[in-house]
């Protein structure tokens, strides 16, 4: 495989020192970064190398969407609070999926993510082999988990998750992983959580779960089990460094301490939490407690956008407004959440541009009004624009595992027009079954 040599770019490394190389270079050999630094590469380009002139562009790690659901019905029945939305929209849609609908829903979801600079998604959905097929075809890095609930809820059960693990885990040169998923405690039980942990340990994989997303969930758990959701998860042994807990809007001090004790990873999903009226998570306290917090968009049905630049902006502004404190969630820290923290949560060798890391890289074009004015050589000004001014349409190039998936905003793997047409047809087909 020939190398990819990226030159003349502003390289935002997100490494331990948060170095920014103005007029820097990045070299990719196979699926790894073999050179990152200022100025021109020391070694000349070799025959067959693909040269990318990144003049006017930011070269940075791909964004990581830590809590994600493939979505078929963006904008459909999205005027409801969480529990009603789930019962009238989300569950009916995913209960009526056919294999091709799942494939095209995933293809459309992953297309939007790639076009917004997302290189990894932590996707909880159904029909995982069909999602894996879409991820393989389009080239994105995915961590998949089933929507596991008690059998009477007619979603997935642990056996489905076990079968999916054995079918697709580690495929696509390792870009596809499978974890054990738990929908949420209102559709589960302490026994199911214990069984999920046992299965994850047996398979040697991680866990993806919704926790403390809404006040109604907390009250339901207290009524049914006499304890709060995170307390139940702790007692069941579900929590740990290999567990990504999504939302965590309504964590008590005691539950936050349990998260810290177990090293559980948290996905903060501010746009979804706001749209569903679920509240504002205690992000400043989570960070002060030393928890690793990444960012997720959740699902396009309860967000309407998979743009992680938008999520980054919300992840700062929401808390500043709520706490009346403009010092909170500064731009470099928010970008860290969307890159390094997400990678750490999933145990991935991505999230920063450093020697030997996986080659998940994006190029963001600054030659537009979003980045105007831009002080030359000023990292703080650049971070500000990336978090507070940019959106996904500024992403020019997306590279995953050393393979260019999008260049000049043109998808190189799947035909985008076909994806859109088939996703629309799949939505119409599933609607007839509801």
What does this structure look like?
This protein has 434 residues and is α/β, with parallel strands linked by helices. The protein has 2 domains: 4-61 and 358-409, Urease, subunit C, domain 1; 63-346, Metal-dependent hydrolases (TIM Barrel, Alpha-Beta Barrel). The protein contains 14 helices and 18 strands. It has helices at 82-95, 99-115, 128-138, 158-168, 190-203, 215-225, 229-235, 253-262, 270-275, 283-288, 308-323, 331-346, 379-389, 416-431; strands spanning 4-12, 20-29, 32-37, 50-53, 57-61, 63-69, 118-125, 141-146, 176-182, 207-211, 243-247, 265-268, 293-295, 298-299, 361-365, 395-400, 403-407, 410-411. The radius of gyration is 21 Å and the shape is globular. The termini are far apart. The mean pLDDT is 96.
């Amino acid at each position: 495989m020939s190398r990819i040599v990226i030159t003349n770019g502003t390289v935002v490394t997100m490494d331990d020192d948060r170095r920014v190389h103005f007029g820097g270079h990045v070299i990719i050999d196979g699926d790894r970064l073999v050179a990152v630094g200022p100025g021109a590469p020391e070694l000349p380009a070799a025959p067959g190398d693909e040269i990318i002139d990144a003049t006017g562009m930011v070269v940075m790690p791909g964004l990581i969407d830590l809590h994600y659901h493939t979505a078929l019905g963006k904008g459909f029945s999205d005027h409801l609070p969480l529990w009603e939305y789930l019962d009238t929209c989300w569950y009916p849609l995913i209960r009526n999926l056919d294999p091709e609908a799942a494939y095209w829903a995933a293809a459309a979801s992953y297309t939007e993510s790639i076009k917004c600079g997302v290189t990894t998604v932590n996707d909880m959905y159904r029909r995982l082999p069909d999602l894996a097929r879409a991820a393989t075809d389009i080239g994105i890095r995915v961590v998949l988990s089933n929507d596991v609930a008690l059998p009477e809820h007619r979603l997935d059960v642990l056996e489905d998750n076990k079968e999916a693990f054995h079918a697709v885990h580690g495929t696509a040169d390792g870009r596809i992983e499978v974890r054990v998923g738990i929908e949420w405690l209102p559709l589960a039980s302490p026994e199911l959580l214990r069984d999920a942990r046992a299965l994850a340990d047996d398979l040697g994989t991680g866990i993806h779960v919704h926790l403390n997303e809404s006040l109604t969930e907390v009250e339901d758990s207290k009524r049914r089990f006499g304890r709060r959701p995170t307390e139940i998860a702790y007692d069941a042994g579900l929590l740990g460094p290999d567990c990504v807990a999504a939302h965590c809007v309504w964590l008590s001090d005691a539950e936050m301490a349990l998260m810290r004790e177990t090293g559980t990873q948290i996905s903060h999903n501010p746009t979804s939490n706001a749209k569903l009226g679920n509240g504002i998570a205690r992000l400043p306290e989570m960070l002060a407690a030393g928890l690793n917090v990444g960012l997720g968009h959740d699902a396009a049905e309860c967000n309407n956008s998979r743009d992680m630049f938008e999520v980054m902006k919300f992840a700062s502004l929401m808390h500043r407004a709520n706490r009346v404190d403009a010092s909170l969630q500064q731009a470099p820290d928010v970008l860290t959440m969307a890159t390094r923290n997400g990678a750490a949560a999933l145990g991935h060798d991505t999230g920063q541009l450093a020697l030997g890391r996986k080659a998940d890289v994006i190029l963001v074009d600054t030659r537009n009004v979003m980045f105007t004015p831009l002080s030359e050589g000023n990292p703080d000004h650049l971070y500000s624009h990336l978090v507070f001014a940019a959106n996904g349409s500024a992403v020019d190039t997306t590279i995953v595992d050393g393979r260019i998936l999008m260049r000049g905003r043109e998808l190189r793997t799947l035909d985008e027009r076909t994806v859109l047409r088939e996703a629309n047809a799949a939505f119409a087909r599933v609607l007839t079954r509801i």
